[in-house]
Write a structure and sequence with these properties.
alpha/beta, about 220 residues, seven-stranded mixed β-sheet, 8 helices, single chain, 7 strands
Length: about 220
Protein backbone atom coordinates (compact mmCIF):
# COMPACT_ATOMS: atom_id res chain seq x y z
CA UNK A 1 0.00 0.00 0.00
CA UNK A 2 1.39 3.40 -0.99
CA UNK A 3 1.58 5.92 1.88
CA UNK A 4 -0.39 9.13 1.55
CA UNK A 5 -0.13 12.64 2.93
CA UNK A 6 -2.93 15.02 3.76
CA UNK A 7 -3.73 17.56 1.00
CA UNK A 8 -2.10 20.48 2.85
CA UNK A 9 1.21 18.61 2.97
CA UNK A 10 1.09 17.56 -0.67
CA UNK A 11 0.53 21.17 -1.70
CA UNK A 12 3.46 22.17 0.50
CA UNK A 13 5.71 19.62 -1.21
CA UNK A 14 4.71 20.89 -4.63
CA UNK A 15 5.52 24.51 -3.70
CA UNK A 16 8.88 23.93 -2.03
CA UNK A 17 12.28 23.33 -3.54
CA UNK A 18 15.12 21.60 -1.74
CA UNK A 19 15.63 18.35 0.07
CA UNK A 20 12.99 16.36 1.88
CA UNK A 21 14.19 14.52 4.99
CA UNK A 22 12.70 11.10 5.68
CA UNK A 23 13.21 9.94 9.27
CA UNK A 24 12.30 6.34 9.98
CA UNK A 25 11.42 5.00 13.42
CA UNK A 26 9.63 1.91 14.76
CA UNK A 27 7.00 1.82 17.49
CA UNK A 28 8.71 3.43 20.48
CA UNK A 29 8.28 0.42 22.76
CA UNK A 30 9.98 -1.82 20.16
CA UNK A 31 12.98 0.48 19.66
CA UNK A 32 16.45 -0.27 21.03
CA UNK A 33 15.58 -3.59 22.62
CA UNK A 34 19.24 -4.58 22.20
CA UNK A 35 20.01 -2.29 25.12
CA UNK A 36 18.72 -5.17 27.22
CA UNK A 37 18.96 -4.59 30.95
CA UNK A 38 21.20 -1.52 30.64
CA UNK A 39 18.13 0.69 31.17
CA UNK A 40 14.56 0.05 32.24
CA UNK A 41 11.74 0.24 29.71
CA UNK A 42 10.64 3.76 30.64
CA UNK A 43 14.17 5.12 30.32
CA UNK A 44 14.68 3.32 27.01
CA UNK A 45 11.51 4.86 25.53
CA UNK A 46 12.50 8.31 26.76
CA UNK A 47 15.97 7.85 25.23
CA UNK A 48 14.38 6.92 21.89
CA UNK A 49 12.13 9.98 22.00
CA UNK A 50 15.03 12.25 22.93
CA UNK A 51 17.20 11.01 20.04
CA UNK A 52 14.31 11.38 17.60
CA UNK A 53 13.81 14.96 18.82
CA UNK A 54 17.51 15.67 18.15
CA UNK A 55 17.24 14.34 14.59
CA UNK A 56 14.02 16.27 13.94
CA UNK A 57 15.59 19.50 15.20
CA UNK A 58 18.66 19.03 13.01
CA UNK A 59 16.53 18.31 9.93
CA UNK A 60 14.19 21.24 10.52
CA UNK A 61 17.07 23.71 10.96
CA UNK A 62 19.25 22.45 8.10
CA UNK A 63 19.54 25.05 5.35
CA UNK A 64 19.20 22.46 2.59
CA UNK A 65 16.04 20.77 3.94
CA UNK A 66 12.63 22.21 3.14
CA UNK A 67 10.36 19.44 4.41
CA UNK A 68 10.71 16.86 7.19
CA UNK A 69 8.58 13.70 7.20
CA UNK A 70 8.58 10.80 9.65
CA UNK A 71 7.97 7.21 8.55
CA UNK A 72 6.50 5.35 11.52
CA UNK A 73 3.59 3.12 12.59
CA UNK A 74 2.64 5.72 15.24
CA UNK A 75 2.79 9.46 15.84
CA UNK A 76 3.59 9.25 19.56
CA UNK A 77 5.14 12.63 20.55
CA UNK A 78 6.01 13.85 17.06
CA UNK A 79 4.91 17.51 16.75
CA UNK A 80 1.66 18.01 14.86
CA UNK A 81 3.41 20.20 12.27
CA UNK A 82 5.47 17.23 11.04
CA UNK A 83 3.63 14.80 8.76
CA UNK A 84 3.83 11.07 9.52
CA UNK A 85 3.68 8.41 6.84
CA UNK A 86 2.32 5.12 8.11
CA UNK A 87 4.83 2.28 8.11
CA UNK A 88 2.78 -0.81 7.29
CA UNK A 89 5.34 -3.06 8.98
CA UNK A 90 6.46 -5.00 5.89
CA UNK A 91 10.09 -3.85 6.25
CA UNK A 92 12.09 -0.66 6.65
CA UNK A 93 13.36 -0.87 3.08
CA UNK A 94 9.86 -1.36 1.67
CA UNK A 95 8.51 1.58 3.71
CA UNK A 96 11.30 3.85 2.49
CA UNK A 97 10.83 2.79 -1.13
CA UNK A 98 7.11 3.60 -0.89
CA UNK A 99 7.81 6.98 0.71
CA UNK A 100 10.50 7.75 -1.88
CA UNK A 101 8.08 6.89 -4.69
CA UNK A 102 5.47 9.24 -3.27
CA UNK A 103 7.97 12.10 -2.95
CA UNK A 104 9.16 11.60 -6.52
CA UNK A 105 5.54 11.73 -7.68
CA UNK A 106 5.30 15.18 -6.10
CA UNK A 107 8.50 16.34 -7.77
CA UNK A 108 10.85 16.03 -4.78
CA UNK A 109 14.09 14.62 -6.20
CA UNK A 110 16.37 15.49 -3.27
CA UNK A 111 15.71 13.04 -0.44
CA UNK A 112 17.70 12.60 2.77
CA UNK A 113 17.14 9.36 4.68
CA UNK A 114 17.99 9.50 8.38
CA UNK A 115 17.57 7.04 11.25
CA UNK A 116 16.10 8.32 14.50
CA UNK A 117 19.05 7.38 16.74
CA UNK A 118 21.75 9.97 15.99
CA UNK A 119 22.02 11.91 19.26
CA UNK A 120 25.00 14.04 18.12
CA UNK A 121 23.64 15.03 14.72
CA UNK A 122 23.77 18.71 13.73
CA UNK A 123 22.05 20.65 10.98
CA UNK A 124 25.43 21.30 9.36
CA UNK A 125 25.97 17.53 9.05
CA UNK A 126 22.81 17.23 6.99
CA UNK A 127 23.78 20.23 4.86
CA UNK A 128 27.17 18.63 4.12
CA UNK A 129 25.46 15.37 3.16
CA UNK A 130 22.99 17.09 0.80
CA UNK A 131 25.59 19.31 -0.86
CA UNK A 132 27.84 16.31 -1.45
CA UNK A 133 24.97 14.45 -3.12
CA UNK A 134 24.36 17.38 -5.44
CA UNK A 135 27.77 16.80 -7.03
CA UNK A 136 27.18 13.18 -8.02
CA UNK A 137 23.60 12.27 -7.21
CA UNK A 138 24.32 10.25 -4.08
CA UNK A 139 26.08 10.63 -0.73
CA UNK A 140 26.32 8.28 2.23
CA UNK A 141 27.55 8.38 5.82
CA UNK A 142 28.42 5.06 7.43
CA UNK A 143 28.25 4.07 11.07
CA UNK A 144 31.36 3.90 13.24
CA UNK A 145 32.17 0.39 11.99
CA UNK A 146 32.18 1.50 8.36
CA UNK A 147 29.80 -1.32 7.37
CA UNK A 148 26.37 0.14 8.13
CA UNK A 149 24.51 3.20 6.81
CA UNK A 150 23.65 6.04 9.18
CA UNK A 151 22.45 8.53 6.55
CA UNK A 152 22.18 8.87 2.82
CA UNK A 153 21.02 11.45 0.32
CA UNK A 154 19.66 10.92 -3.18
CA UNK A 155 19.53 13.65 -5.79
CA UNK A 156 18.01 11.70 -8.66
CA UNK A 157 14.57 10.99 -10.16
CA UNK A 158 15.00 7.20 -10.39
CA UNK A 159 13.63 4.58 -7.99
CA UNK A 160 16.25 3.46 -5.48
CA UNK A 161 16.41 0.03 -3.86
CA UNK A 162 17.17 0.67 -0.21
CA UNK A 163 19.45 -1.90 1.40
CA UNK A 164 19.32 -1.24 5.15
CA UNK A 165 20.56 -4.27 7.06
CA UNK A 166 23.91 -6.11 7.18
CA UNK A 167 26.67 -4.62 5.01
CA UNK A 168 24.33 -1.80 3.95
CA UNK A 169 27.01 0.76 3.11
CA UNK A 170 28.53 -1.46 0.41
CA UNK A 171 25.11 -2.44 -0.92
CA UNK A 172 23.89 1.17 -1.04
CA UNK A 173 27.02 2.25 -2.90
CA UNK A 174 26.53 -0.65 -5.29
CA UNK A 175 22.91 0.40 -5.89
CA UNK A 176 23.97 4.01 -6.52
CA UNK A 177 26.50 2.88 -9.12
CA UNK A 178 23.85 0.71 -10.78
CA UNK A 179 21.90 3.93 -11.31
CA UNK A 180 25.05 5.59 -12.69
CA UNK A 181 25.33 7.94 -9.71
CA UNK A 182 28.70 8.90 -8.26
CA UNK A 183 28.81 8.02 -4.54
CA UNK A 184 30.28 10.58 -2.17
CA UNK A 185 31.40 9.12 1.16
CA UNK A 186 30.89 11.44 4.15
CA UNK A 187 32.73 11.08 7.47
CA UNK A 188 31.28 13.26 10.24
CA UNK A 189 31.07 12.45 13.99
CA UNK A 190 27.44 13.56 14.20
CA UNK A 191 26.44 11.05 11.53
CA UNK A 192 28.75 8.23 12.61
CA UNK A 193 27.55 7.75 16.18
CA UNK A 194 24.30 5.88 16.77
CA UNK A 195 23.07 4.06 19.86
CA UNK A 196 22.55 0.31 19.53
CA UNK A 197 24.35 -1.34 22.45
CA UNK A 198 25.00 -0.77 26.17
CA UNK A 199 28.54 0.30 25.20
CA UNK A 200 27.10 3.05 22.99
CA UNK A 201 24.85 4.07 25.85
CA UNK A 202 27.85 4.59 28.12
CA UNK A 203 29.06 7.33 25.78
CA UNK A 204 25.83 9.21 26.44
CA UNK A 205 26.14 9.32 30.22
CA UNK A 206 26.38 13.11 30.36
CA UNK A 207 23.94 13.87 27.56
CA UNK A 208 20.99 16.20 28.34
CA UNK A 209 18.44 13.38 28.04
CA UNK A 210 20.11 11.57 30.96
CA UNK A 211 20.02 14.70 33.13
CA UNK A 212 16.33 15.19 32.35
CA UNK A 213 15.52 11.63 33.33
CA UNK A 214 17.30 12.08 36.66
CA UNK A 215 15.38 15.26 37.42
Amino acid sequence: MTPTLEPDWTRSLQRRRGACALIAIKERERCKTRLGNAVDERTRVELVRSMLAAVLTAAQTAQTVHQTIVVSPERDQIPAAIPVLADTGESLNAALEQAHRMLRDFGCHEVVVLPADLPHIMASDIDTLVRAARTGGFSIASDATGAGTNALCLVAPQPFRFQFGPDSRRLHVQEARRLELTPQIIHLPGLAFDVDTPADLQRLEEQPWRARLRA
